[in-house]
Write a sequence for this structure.
């Protein structure tokens, strides 16, 4: 199975990178841009029996390492 | 008296911490590699130094928090051994769940490196008893991700419980409530972004950091 994990700062947690990117986009003329958030994507192969089992394992990885749930939220995709 | 400084790959203040502890307290200091599974016997103080452990990969301190030695560090802290995380060490303690909150990128996206004035918010902890009667101390910060964050409930709790130990007089990085250092509920684990290891003798511009190491060992 191929797993993709998207990690972003939680809503309400100041994303200064997002703010800087947003200001740069405004500077390039895209003044309608708002709410930029910069996150990261982590992908990997995983020998899981099925999608549901893989997803639950990947969520456990997020809780233990891939995300810091004090400040970040995550979304898991398994295919 | 015996202290241990944990050395992670990418730590760069480990030697500073060793010298700072030796000169300010006279304690002997063991350098302990992150890959070891046990601390030496009879350790009275554990210090997690500043630097860029594991290149700050994934998140500052995330990998170091899972280092083999951290199991024993957690057990020692549970036994009540004084444990201090400085800068990257603070980030590691938060990532390890040994302290509340997390450290975000600095609000202004700048690496801040300068002496800062700190308010001693709680001079009744085992780390700050030596500051009794003093409201202000000076140490140096050097961080890009020193912006302390905790949710409102956690902030209210640590403020109410006296766990906020140091506060910036002039907040350099956007930290919530200008928090520069916190202790755990039990009071034996301290994390702070400013460097007491860069302020332990007058030649460095301040000797205020020496008092922190002295206090930590005096109560051991």
């Amino acid at each position: 199975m191929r797993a993709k994990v998207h990690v972003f700062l939680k809503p309400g947690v100041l994303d200064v990178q997002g703010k800087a990117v947003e200001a740069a986009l405004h500077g390039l003329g895209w003044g309608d841009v708002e709410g930029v958030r910069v996150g990261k994507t982590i992908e990997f192969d995983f020998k899981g029996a099925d999608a549901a089992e893989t997803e639950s394992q990947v969520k456990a990885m997020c809780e233990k390492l891939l995300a810091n749930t004090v400040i970040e939220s995550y979304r898991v995709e398994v295919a | 008296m015996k202290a241990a400084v944990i050395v992670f790959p990418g730590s760069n203040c480990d030697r500073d911490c060793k010298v700072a502890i030796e000169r300010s307290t006279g304690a002997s200091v063991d350098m302990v590699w992150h890959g070891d599974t046990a601390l030496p016997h009879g350790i009275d103080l554990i210090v997690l130094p500043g630097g860029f452990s594991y290149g700050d990969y994934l998140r500052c301190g995330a990998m170091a928090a899972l280092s083999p030695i951290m199991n024993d560090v957690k057990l020692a802290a549970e036994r009540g051994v004084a444990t201090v995380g400085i800068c990257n060490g603070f980030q590691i303690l938060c990532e390890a769940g040994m302290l509340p909150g997390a450290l975000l990128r600095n609000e202004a996206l700048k690496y801040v490196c300068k002496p800062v004035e700190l308010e001693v918010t709680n001079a009744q902890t085992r780390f700050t008893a030596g500051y009794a009667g003093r409201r202000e101390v000076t140490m140096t910060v050097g961080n890009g991700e020193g912006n302390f964050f905790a949710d409102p409930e956690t902030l209210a709790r640590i403020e109410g419980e006296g766990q906020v130990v140091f506060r910036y007089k002039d907040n350099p990085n956007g930290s919530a409530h200008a928090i520069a250092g916190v202790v755990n509920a039990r009071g034996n684990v301290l994390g702070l972004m400013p460097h007491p290891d860069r302020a332990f003798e007058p030649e460095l511009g301040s000797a205020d950091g020496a008092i922190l190491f002295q206090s930590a060992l005096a109560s051991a």
